[in-house]
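FORM 7B: Structural annotation worksheet

SECTION A. Query
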Amino acid sequence: MRGASDPQPSAWRIEGCLPYNGIVHTRVILSRVAGNKDLRIALGSDERSPLADFVEQELRRRGFQVELFGPLKGDALAWPDVAQAVAECVASGRADEGVLFCWTGTGVAIAANKVPGIRAALCGDAQTARGAKAWNQANVLCLSLRSASLAVAGEVLDAWFSAEPDPAEAENVNKLKTLDDRYRPAALATERGKGIH
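SECTION B. Predicted structure
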């Protein structure tokens, strides 16, 4: 039963856990979809589009603090540069999470994942977004300007921002961190040896 101080029923969503590796998790999570007003989002795209504008408006409607990058801010940047800027903002802690767009979404995901500490996920549907957050603890959501509709983008945002980390995946997420720690220093040394900075 809702109390007088509870939010409207539409602000709450009951979610069941998804099947994973053949095991159906049966716990039910009651999660608030409306948003955390303290959440800082870095939002970037290599072009301004109705989809990017919709997502910006939707993030602000949810009460998030949004910092814009690339053409969304009025700066002409190619997709690798926008992805780098958003990923560095998240990796440095200036933003809690990022959202990126390019035509396929693949390019910005690849570029963002080059930045240490970033786990960018290309999500074309709500289930993928929920899994990326719950199982992989992804911190940058990537969307395709070509294939994502406004309706699907809204569903993806709902899933992304309502998902909670799955404790059963903590060991696997730690393995990702170990991989990051193992290969990043070697890659940096190789780049420095080639005169790449």
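SECTION C. Observations
The chain has one domain: 13-166. The mean pLDDT is 83.

SECTION D. Sign-off
Analyst initials: ____
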